[in-house]
Amino acid sequence: MGWKKIDKIISKSVAIIIIGLVICSFSIIKININRNRGDYFSETPDNLKISSDTEPNNDFNNAVEVYSGDEWSGSVDYTDDPNDYYKIYLESLQILEIIFDSSDYHNLYIYNPDLEYVYSTMCDHYSLANISWTANDDGYHYIRIGYDIGNSYTMNVSIPGFEVGITHPKDISYKYGNVGNVITWKIIDYDIGTTNYTIKYNSVVKESGSWSSGVIINHSIDGLLCGIYNITIEANDGKGDLYSDSVDVYVGFDIESNDNFNEAVEVLPDIEWSGEANYDDYDYYKIYLDLLQILELRFEYKSGMDPVEIMIYDPTQELLNETIVSSGNASLKIVAILEGYYYFRVFPWYEVYYNLTAIIPGEVNGLIIPAESFSYEYGTEGNTIIWKIIDKNVGGTTYSIKHDSIINETGSWTSNVDIVHDIDGLSLGSHNISIEANDGQDDFYFDNVSVNVFNKAPMIDYQGNTTIIKGSQGNYLKWNISDYSINPSNASYVVYQNSSLILNNTLQKGINIITYPIDNLTVGNYEFNLTVNDGLGIHNECAEDIVNIQMIKNTNISINSPSNITYEHYDTGNTILWNITDVTTINPTFIIYHEGIENQSGTWQSGVIVEHSVDGFDIGVYNISISAFDGCGLNITSWVLVNVTPCIDPILFPPVPEEVYLLGKPLNLQWTVIDDTINSSYTNYSIYHKGILNKTGSWQSQDIIIDDGYINTPGICNITIIVFDGLGRNASDSFNVTILQPNNNQWQYLTAGSHVLWCADSNKIYIKMTLTSTGYCSVKINGSIYDPFSTSFDNGLLYFSVEVINSSNLVFPVTTRFYIPASILGSYPRGNLTLYHYNGTDWEGIPDIELNFPSDENWMEYNCPSFSVYALGLKSSTSNGDGDGDDDGDGDDDGDGDDDGDGDGDGDGLAAFWNNYGGIVLGLSISIGIGCVIGIIVVIKTGAIATSNIDTAKRSSKKLRKIKHKFDINKLKNSIQKINEIIDELSEEQIIKLTRQIKKIIKKIIEKDKKSIEELAGELIKSHLLIKKDNIKKAEKRAKKVLKIAEKENHDVIIKEANNIIEKIHNISEKRGKV
Predict the structure, then answer these.
(1) 551-565 burial string, b = 16+ CB within 10 Å, else e?
(2) Angle at which helices 1032-1049 and 1052-1074 pack, to 10 degrees?
């Protein structure tokens, strides 16, 4: 609904005409022409004889033109159109004088050529009104005689001359790139000398010149960049008088980022904007409006696709007006009812090119903001209609409000202040509420609102069907009835139980709460029916609700009985699990007590575990109980004893190390720690080699693994570990290992069978040999030459040296030497250097590299797959000679078959054996059990195969397969002895096969023995768990069984730990006896 203004009363038009004719017969015309110096005016035509307001001069378009010297008489009042309009042509700075005489009160207004209000006054009948006003523009100016009380008047107008001064042009706005923009000034001065003026842009001089009185100064402002400019003129008349004026110029354009309210482009009136917008790039603009100013938005659809929506918003960004344009032009208008920025948005459905112009044609005298039609429920309160009238020029204001044409309220109003009208208590049905108001001047306002009063049915808020357990308390039916539209004398409600009336009461206006207790119902099914009647006769509304109640029998509650708990002090993760079951519960709850003091409470569900932690207790025995309630009158209680015992030290299971390690070989040790109570943030261990700290670390799991424990010096080394559990307790383990460096070897030239072993962990080996006339040879390993013998030898000795570097940069020198007879000292020895390797899976004795010497500078590179032991052997190039072999357990043999590691042996034919068939050297050092090392040294010699002994070899191989399943170390020794006795009768392939079988059998023996220890340790861990679960008898039985087996197999560590567990069990039993 738009704003409304009463400015015409059509029913009085006939009376106006009659009165106008009567007045016309008494009108007088008087023309006064006053010519002063410098006068510029239009003379009144001689034939013009207009003396009254008989013209329909009731708006600007029909204004009667008057001239200087005219005396005009007329009349306005509430029976006539309340305004008479006149116009007179004035030049800028001309003075307009008006003498106004009236028989009562009149309002007089002056408007400039743009119809902008510039002057007003109220004239009364007590004295003449003398008005003098100076024009600022060239063109027709308008005089409006308005109604106040009104009646006849006489008005004399004259133009006595010009006022000395300078004109003040309006501020200018134009779009960037437009042309024809000019500022025009005129200066009036009757006494001038040498004149001059300057024009400044933002205080910077732009133009200067001279001027003449009454002659226009035109200044072009085309070509400015976008922005706001203050353009000032300063003029001097040459005789001491100064004139100045200032004009603001705004130059703007459309921008792409104005796609929301916050980025709206500010525009000034009369600027035409060209823009482009699409469905995801809207254009927003804003313009500042004073109260009651009119905004007209003119839109030109230049080109595009699909329609575009044009919308205008007020300063609160509430939509005021909108339209949809598909082509051509459109116009939207609003009146500012708030002072501030108003927004308009160009919202295309797809894409549009447009021109947009914001016009402010003027302002309205006033307006009424209408109220919206609405409905409300009969009997409710707080229903109001709110109007607001905005009027800048008010006198004695009045209003009257009618209900269905009958006056209900009258009063006065204030501009821009709400008129709030209470409409509570209207009868059911539709009503017309209207307001009529006037501003005490000449403006009237009217609005009409339609109000519908309706009856709303009662609303019932109910609890719904439910099941109740017999014996539970506090059960009742409850309804909330809400109804404000009732007849209190007739409104009522009734409740039936299985068709029997149980409640019949009066319904009150508003909220009614109905309750009915049902604890005493017997087991069975019940229907309750509620009916509500608001008592309004023909407009009567009813509501109904039905509730079904089932009363059932209560069942018993049950709970499990968890086992008592025993745990070490500081142990965590100790919980009690209760399982409570009951099929009939209402808000079931539980309470947990520690030694009779409430510790925890909550709710429970049938069959859902209630978990309760008992961590953090001090050492002692505690009674923990739970009481569960089903909410229906039944409850149950369960108890658990919690025994917190002192902490025990960690249990450390030591590794099974080899007693002898080659220098530089990794130790690869692993300890197992058992400790149920630790502080994982502070657990740590320290490992010492020969009393010196070698490594520290933290541990979280049960295993501590040391995989890089190199020892860089030979001899006996003590290894000690101390483990801390983070709670002040510790455990330790200590043992010795022997670190060996390969011994120097010596043999005589033209003998064979000697070899050297060393340990390394590289994947490449480099060998460089140089043989001098004095008999010196060196070997290069891993790219570096190591020469520990810097002086030449004599007495027929040839020195042969090897050094090995492992991945930890440890150096291991090995030296060999052999004797050269003086008779052939001048000759170079002939022979081969043979390299053997152990590939990690099988022992092999097939030569991989042979280096023939003497040579000049022989470099050989050997890429090894994965090895730890290497052997260098020297093979003679002749076939004769007896030798005295070294049989000290290092794998050397002189060919007599004696290989028991206990002494020397002599034999013949070994040189020929090496010369014809080569040799295989096998050295094993096997660790079995704890601290038990068996040395098995086997010398296997290749030779011709005797056909008659093939069966013997097969039988020996068969025996080995049987031994493999028995894992008997003594039988294994006997079988190896028998193989050595027939070794000369076996083929090389059979020998290799048999040696592989021996290795696999030994490996199985080791694994069996290790498994036995691991199984016993596992049984001890189970004993610990049984103690934790408070199963003392089973824990003791298992520990004693382990002790018996460990004593039989001499496992000292297991024996010690089993005794500790048995002692712990005895301590627990003694404490419980005291309790």
Answers:
(1) beebeebebeebeeb
(2) 160
- How many domains, in total, are found in the chain? 9
DSSP state of 796: T
Which sign does the torsion angle of CA 790, 795, 796, 800 carry?
Answer: negative
Helix (H) or strand (E) holding 956: helix 950-966
Phi, psi of 501 (to 5 degrees): -65, 125
Is 887 domain-assigned?
Answer: yes
Contact 445, 436 (CB under 8 A): yes
The CA distance from 12 to 9, in Å, is 6
Query: Tokens standing for 982?
Result: 């027939």
Shared domain for 1000 and 858, answered yes or no, is no
What is the SS3 string spanning 562-580? CCCEEEECCCCCCEEEEEE
Cβ–Cβ contacts within 10 Å for residue 639, how many? 12
Residues 880, 777 share a domain: yes
Confidence at residue 254, expressed as pLDDT on a 0 to 100 scale: 59
Q: Determine the residue type at 43.
A: E
> Quick check: 785 and 859 in contact, CB under 8 A?
no
Question: How far lies 395's CA from each of 143, 277, 389, 441, in Å?
Answer: 21, 48, 13, 6
Please write the tens of the pLDDT for every residue from 492-544.
999 999 999 999 999 988 889 999 999 889 989 999 999 999 888 777 788 89
Q: Is residue 203 in some structural domain?
A: yes
Residue that terminates a domain, selected from 138, 162, 186: 162
Name the helix (H) or strand (E) containing 30.
Answer: none
Q: What is the pairing mode between strands 265-266 and 283-289?
A: parallel
Alpha-carbon distance 1001 to 993, whole Å? 13
Q: State the pLDDT at residue 707.
A: 56
| Under 8 Å between Cβ of 89 and 158 | no
Q: What is the mean pLDDT of the chain?
A: 72
Residue pLDDT, tens place only, 656-683: 777 677 665 667 788 888 777 788 788 8
Is the Cβ–Cβ distance between 910 and 939 less than 8 Å?
A: no
Do 995 and 922 form a contact (C-beta atoms < 8 A)?
Answer: yes
**Cα-based distances in Å from 582 to 21, 562, 610, 741, 1054:** 106, 18, 14, 78, 50
Most confident listed range (260-264, 419-423, 965-969, 1006-1010): 419-423
The rounded distance, in Å, linking the Cα atoms of 155 and 178 is 45
φ and ψ at residue 653, rounded to 5 degrees: -95, 120
Cis peptide before 854 (omega within 30 of 0): yes
Please answer whether residues 605 and 584 qualify as being in contact, where contact means their C-beta atoms are separated by less than 8 angstroms: no
Given a cut of 80, whether residue 919 has pLDDT beyond it is no
Residue 863 has pLDDT above 60, yes or no: no
Shared-domain flag, residues 511 and 543: yes
C-beta separation of 183 from 219 below 8 A? yes
998 falls in which pLDDT band (50, 70, 90)? Answer: low
Supply 981's token pair.
């006795």
Tokens linked to 877:
């190039």
Percent above pLDDT 70 for the chain? 65
Establish how many alpha carbons lie within 13 A of residue 993's alpha carbon, considering only the half-sphere containing its beta carbon: 12
Q: What Cα–Cα distance (Å) separates residue 669 from each residue in 26, 563, 633, 657, 673?
A: 137, 41, 66, 7, 13
Confidence of residue 701 (pLDDT cuts 50, 70, 90): low
